[in-house]
Structures are given as structure tokens and as C-alpha cells.
Amino acid sequence: MVQVRPGFAYDCDVLVIGGGIVGLSTAYAITRAAPGTRVTVLEKEPGPARHQTGRNSGVIHSGIYYRPDSLKARYAVRGATEMVKFCAEYGIEHAVTGKLIVATERAELPRLHALVQRGRENGIPVRELGAAQIAEYEPEVRGLAAIHVGTTGVCDFVGVARRLADSSGTDIRYGAQVVQVDRRPSLGVAVRTAHGDIVRGRVLVNCAGLHCDRIARMTGDDPDMRIVPFRGEYYELARPDLVNGLVYPVPDPAFPFLGVHLTRGIDGGVHIGPNAVPALAREGYDWSTVRPRELGTTLAWPGSWHIARRHWRYGAGELHRSVSKAAFTEAVRRLLPAVTDHDLVPAPAGVRAQAVLRDGTLVDDFLVKEGPRAVHVLNAPSPAATASLPIGREIAHRALTSLGETERR
């Protein structure tokens, strides 16, 4: 049993679990807000940003999709501006390309108009386009109507994470998987890693992404949610000249997923995807990766079964596109009629750490909870990379507040 005991020196003031972009932004923000604060980051992988941060489409989101006054809306709009400035300051590859959101069916037109209104409420400039005007931006794309969002862009989020790590001045330990946590409200927090090392801190910040609910439970806090992993599968477009920038379908507001879209990245290639299928492991990047204990945890959570019953038609469509390249291609052809099966080249997949409540509700906003000497980031999928700088400051504020309370005891 790892324990925090009186008389032992603390290794750090704030102990951050997770070396993705949110954890590293938090460490960076703490050292900026309170110089001299000792921060240690534990990351189980051999380097930063190996999961959600490094396996997304690299889009700097504008914030147009998110409910006004939600954390996602506030932080994405602010974060997009800050991310572009950060990349420019540190020479990280980025581009503000703008994007199209395209309606291909009449039933989507009211939802497209609702996005225009939401964009205006969130302070995002939006241009409405008729069918003929779409070609001004994307000659090969077809639709009934579209909107152009000029503040959307792309960047190298892995490069951002590395810069945050290098600039934070913190003790970052890679290959340090946390296997046990002992939290004593009167003393602090001690964790044991898989290598047997023990690290003691005054306050814990849980930015463990796909494993954040497990870390919360190890700490002794009930997160009242579970991470249900959804894999997003991508293809690379063999003819990237078919797409100039970013092209999205009109999303279904019942789901936190944006649908299969086209993204010209900073490398000039065009990614197509993702879909959203259940992953059989927290890091299940393909169908062959199955971890029975993790899968059992997902299946034992009542919310998983509520999702399956409530949204089985949507899920069946996503599964069909996963196992059938022809079906995936057909979904792309709704936006880009010129594409063929031969144009789609398999690319690495990602896994979204989606928080699901007991009743099957898919948490659609960032979710941060606090316990004694602990701050838990329990839902931070897209647009968390875009919003990582303001999110990091918010988490840092909570951690430093907790630290101040412990020092007054």
C-alpha cells in the first residue's frame, strides 16, 4: 500500500497525471500564474500527446457548434485565437484556412440555419452561401447551401504539446504509468507507478483522458460517469487536389460527433473521417485490439446500454461504414461526388474519450470536478486541443486554489 505519511517531503506541489495537451497546458499555466510552484507531470507513454492530442484531425475549431455560454463555446472561441497566436510566436506550423459546412439534403437546411444563429451568438463571423457559391471555395464540393466560417484553421497540436512541455519548466516523467493513488485530505496525495516509484504531491490534477474516470476512482472520488471509448477511423485522400481546405457536413445535434469531414492538414494531405464506432479497449485503435477488463467495464456501465437502445440506428450506420469501405465512400460522395473507393487510403485511427452518465447521456460539454486536494478533468474531447490554453488556465486556477487552501491548514 502506497501511503502519504507525516514527515515525508513532497516531491512537488501539484502532481499532474497525463501528458496530453490539456495536462501540459495546465502545467504551463500553473508555472506562469505562480512562479516557483513545483509541478510534476506523469505520462505513461514514452513521449507527449500520444493519444487524443496526436490522433485527431488537427483542426483549430471556431466554436460555432457549441451551445452559447457553455464551456466549449467560451473556451473554443477564445482558444482558437490564442492557439493561432501561440503557434505564430513559437514557429509551430499552422494555417487559418476557414471551412465550409455544407447541407446536402433539404432536411439539413433548418439545422444549417440554426448554426448560423449559433455562430452569431458566439461572436463568430459566418457567411451564408447558396449552392452556386460553394464553388468559390470548393469547386468539387456539391450541396444545397453552405456556410463559410473564416476563423477555422489547422495546426500541429503535437508540436504545441511539445512546446508547452519545454516551456513549462516542470518535471515531466515519461513512461510513468500510475497504478495506485493514496489521497489523504489532511496531508496530500501519493501515487505509485508501474515501475514502483512513489511520487508525493500536495494537490493532484487528473488529466488522464481515456483513463480519467479510473484515476478519479483510484483517488477515492466517485466521478458519476464512465469513459466510453469511441474509435474514429480515417482515410487519406489519394487525390488531395480535389479539396482546397476544410469541408464538413451539417452535424446531428443529438450527438457530440461532427460526422465524416474533409480536412486539408498542414502537410498538404487531406484526411477524411472520422466515423464513430465503439472501441473494444480504451486505446482500441482497430478491431483487433480487445482488452476484456476494459470492455467489461464499459459493458457493466448502465449508460452504455441506454446508448445502445436509444441510438442503435445511428450506431448501425457507423458500424456499416467501419466494415464497408464502399459505405464510407458513399458518405463522402454526398459532399465530394468525384471521390471513388480507390481514392481512400487507410490512415491511423483515433479514440475519443467520451464521458457517459448513468442514464446514457453523452456529456456534451467539458466536465471538471473537484475533490479534496484533487481536480479531475472528466470530459475533454474535441475541441479540447483548440481550447487547451484557456482550459489549462481554468484547471490551474482550481489547482492553485486547492493548494492555497492546503497551505492555510
Largest sheet: 9 strands, mixed
Average pLDDT across residues? 95
Low-confidence stretches: none
Number of extended strands: 20
The rough form would be described as: globular
Which percent band covers the strand fraction?
25-35%
End-to-end separation: 26 Å
Helix content: 25-40%
Question: What order do the helices and strands come in, and which of them pair?
Answer:
Elements: E1 12-17, H1 21-33, E2 39-43, E3 59-60, H2 71-90, E4 94-95, E5 99-103, H3 109-121, E6 126-130, H4 134-137, E7 145-149, E8 153-155, H5 157-168, E9 171-174, E10 178-184, E11 188-193, E12 198-206, H6 212-219, E13 226-237, E14 246-249, E15 261-264, E16 270-273, E17 277-278, H7 292-300, H8 302-310, H9 312-323, H10 325-333, E18 344-356, E19 367-371, E20 374-379, H11 388-408
Helix pairs in contact: 1-5, 1-11, 2-11, 9-10
Provide an overview of this structure.
It is a single chain. With about 400 residues, the protein is an alpha+beta fold. The chain has helices at about 20-35, 70-90, 110-120, 135, 155-170, 210-220, 290-300, 300-310, 310-325, 325-335, 390-409; strands spanning about 10-15, 40-45, 60, 95, 100-105, 125-130, 145-150, 155, 170-175, 180-185, 190-195, 200-205, 225-235, 245-250, 260-265, 270-275, 275-280, 345-355, 365-370, 375-380. The strands form three sheets. Strands 5, 6, 7, 13, 14, 15, 16, 17 and 18 form a nine-stranded mixed β-sheet that branches. The relative contact order is 0.19. The model has no long low-confidence stretch (mean pLDDT about 95).
